[in-house]
Design brief:
The complex is a heterodimer.
Chain A (H helix, E strand, L loop, with lengths): L3 H14 L1 H38 L4 E6 L7 H8 L4 E14 L6 E7 L1 H7 L5 E4 L9 E4 L1 H4 L13 E10 L2 E15 L13 E4 L2 H5 L8 E6 L5 H12 L3 E5 H44 L1 H9 L4 H37 L1 E5 L3 E5 L7 H28 L2 H6 L2
Parallel strand pairs in A: 3-8, 5-7
Antiparallel strand pairs in A: 1-9, 1-10, 2-3, 2-6, 2-9, 4-7, 5-8, 6-7, 11-12
Chain B lengths: L2 E14 L2 E14 L3 E5 L6 H8 L7 E6 L2 E2 L5 H11 E4 L11 H5 L1 H6 L3 H14 L16 H13 L5 E5 L7 H16 L3 E6 L2 H4 L4 E6 L2 E6 L14
Helix pairs in contact in B: 5-6, 6-7
The chains are: A alpha+beta, B alpha/beta.
């Protein structure tokens, strides 16, 4: 029984005989693993990031926003509160503004019942101070990145006043309004900036929207459901209730959509990479068939000195597998480098001017991904060399020794 | 008397379409253990085919090939490989060393097929190489860095490294100058004196004369058996 170390040595020696040809084949093999590793690494990390962010915002939460031209009312709110599985519901108003006189220092202002908000988004934590009550008009909770500058130095503490200019939309159009909000609490660092960026937000009691900003229309209604498993049902009932007058979204639903989009992208990547793998199989087959033909006499000698047909098959197969494994390793390494390069550019998600977020996250390489790519690579080697190996095994030794 | 090689009415017929070309026509041959046999004949007479039958590189169309008392004419290819590895050593006219391998790697090949551990292989390779007059410093060299005579000695070392009982040589001096041919035949004689059965195919009478008996083959039949002219053996003649 031939030893594994000898199989590796003989196969490696086989590759070194025609270095340029082997190198070109290896490069051909590397393309598939490179594409899969790079794209899967990046898309899975984005997918995880998006799903985690969305789920972190509250798996029990449903958001109802009015369609263009419709105004949500107290009646809508009462009807929603009356639905099964709805724990509570609260209207909210949101807008964008900037701190002090610096229009580049963008912040988001949300007017919502603070008590409801902290219950609905459990990942929001108060770092210092006390959240305002609904009656505390003029007070607010500020995000960590407002309370602290980029170097971590404190800018605002509880009791300080934050001056913010907000854009308010009403029946007369959009107007800018300057607000002075007393900081009652500072929120802990939240991280992430998808859909909601608490670190750059100011949360004020809902009444502030009308009393301080003069806003009369609600931006939407937040609905807290008793369990994530009932979110879909509640969302469907609200849709039935309000018809085309409102858009109903749940973070769980968005997470599911994000996940399925990523799965679709991954599937398309996989399908495209299969073409690269098919080309690699052809490349290895061509190289190995040529190699077997060139080595016909040598195969005859090996058989004459006692190598069995099976050993010849194993050696030929292993040479192909070794070639594809080297290609796979190069491809995976290149894919990792490429994924970091791609990820460093970030993924920008935008929706008009109001919403623009760039996700920067390290690519994710799971053992499953790397194992799968290696498995596919080995399969390429086997498929590419099986026919040449069979041909090599079937060469009659006496004939092979006469081969010129 | 028991024979190490026995061929009984061996026929080999090659078929190309409907055309049949007999290469061997009922050959009977018996070689005793420790004998040195030369097979001579013109080109196309069936010498190499006969050697292929003995060396289990080919199967007879008819007849029996018996090696070391076992009928090997109808073995599976796996069993034939096993017998080739353990019983037989081959030496070819063109050395047939593998160019990308070092001398060490070439000589150890039969042991690799057998699964012998590396340490033991190194010892056996060195022993075989020394037996054929090779030098340890050749081990790391590539075959092309050696002369023709040295390469043939490496090929002989490869043939004997697995301690076979039969050494088969197909025109072993055909690619060598007289001096190298003489060294090779001296090596064969020495190995034969140590008990190895040697069967060589040759055109060269001075090579054939180094054997104990010469079989002459023509048109696939053994037509003559004659004793060698001992003083015309290349191994006992001075270098010209």
């Amino acid at each position: 029984m031939i030893r594994l170390s000898d199989i590796i040595m003989l196969s490696y020696k086989g590759l070194t005989e025609k270095k340029a040809r082997a190198l070109l084949t290896i490069i051909g093999v590397a393309i598939g693993p490179l594409a899969i590793t790079m794209i899967y690494g990046v898309t899975s990390s984005y997918s995880d990031y998006i799903v985690n962010q969305i789920q972190g915002l509250g798996q029990n939460l449903v958001i109802v926003t009015p369609s263009q031209g419709y105004k949500l009312s107290e009646r809508d709110l009462d009807r929603i509160k009356g639905l099964d599985h709805v724990v509570s519901a609260a209207p909210f108003y949101s807008t964008q503004g900037y701190l002090g006189g610096r229009p580049t220092d963008t912040v988001f202002v949300y007017a919502v019942d603070p008590d409801f908000l902290l219950k609905a988004i459990t990942s929001l934590e108060v770092l210092e101070g006390t959240p305002p009550t609904q009656a505390d008009v003029g007070k607010g909770m500020i995000g960590y990145d407002i309370a602290y500058d980029d170097n971590g130095h404190r800018v605002y503490s509880p009791g300080d006043v934050v001056s913010v200019t907000v854009y308010v939309s009403n029946s007369n159009g959009v107007s800018a309004r300057r607000l002075n909000i007393m900081v009652s609490a500072v929120l802990a660092k939240y991280g992430g900036a998808l859909f909601l960026n608490p670190d750059k937000s100011i949360f004020v009691p809902f009444n502030s929207a009308r009393l301080l900003m003069g806003a009369s229309d609600w931006s939407g209604i937040l609905v807290l459901v008793d369990s994530p498993t009932n979110v879909d049902e509640v969302a469907r009932e609200i849709s039935d209730l309000l018809g085309n007058n409102a858009n109903v979204i749940s973070f769980v639903g968005i997470a599911r959509i994000a996940s399925s989009i990523t799965s679709a992208v991954n599937f398309m990547t996989f399908a495209a990479s299969l073409s690269a793998f098919a080309v690699a199989v052809a490349g290895i087959a061509s190289t190995m068939i040529t190699s077997v033909m060139e080595r016909t006499r040598e195969i005859g000698v090996m058989k004459a000195i006692g190598f069995t047909d099976t050993q010849v098959v194993v050696l030929t197969l292993f040479e192909g597998i070794l070639m594809s494994l080297i290609g796979g390793a190069i491809g995976i390494a290149g894919g990792v480098v490429g994924a970091f390069q791609l990820a460093s550019r970030g993924l920008t998600i935008s929706s008009g001017e109001f919403f623009k977020v760039t996700i920067r996250t390290a690519p994710k390489f799971t053992p499953g991904l790397i194992g799968g790519v290696i498995g596919l690579t080995i399969l390429v080697g086997v498929l590419g060399s099986i026919l040449p190996a069979y041909r090599a095994a079937k060469i009659p030794p006496a004939e092979a020794l006469r081969y010129e | 008397m028991s024979y190490i090689v026995e061929l009984r009415d061996v026929w080999k017929v090659y078929k190309t379409g409907d055309i049949e070309t007999p290469a061997l026509r009922g050959v009977d041959l018996r070689v005793a253990k420790g004998e040195f046999v030369a097979i001579m004949g013109p080109s196309g007479s069936g010498k190499s085919t006969l050697l292929n039958m003995i060396g289990l590189l080919d199967k007879p169309t008819r007849g029996d090939v018996i090696l070391a008392g076992k009928d090997v004419s109808r073995l599976s290819s796996r069993e034939m490989a096993f017998y080739r590895n353990y019983l037989i050593g081959f030496v070819f006219q063109r050395f047939n060393l593998i160019g990308r391998f070092s001398v060490m790697e070439n000589v150890e090949l039969p042991l690799v097929a057998r699964g012998v551990p590396r340490g033991e292989r190194e010892r056996m390779v060195l022993e075989a190489l020394k037996m054929v007059g090779g030098e340890e410093e050749w081990l790391r060299k590539k075959p092309t860095q050696l002369s023709g005579g040295q390469q043939q000695r490496v090929a002989i070392a490869r043939a004997i490294v697995g301690k076979p009982v039969i050494l088969l040589a197909d025109e072993p001096t055909g690619n060598l100058d007289r001096a190298s041919a003489r060294v090779v035949m001296e090596t064969f004689k020495m190995l034969n004196e140590k008990g190895l059965t040697v069967i060589t195919v040759t055109h060269d009478p001075e090579v054939a004369n180094c054997s104990h008996v010469i079989y002459v083959i023509r048109d696939g039949r053994i037509v003559d058996v004659k004793p060698p002219v001992k003083d015309r053996c290349i191994a006992s003649m001075g270098v010209v």
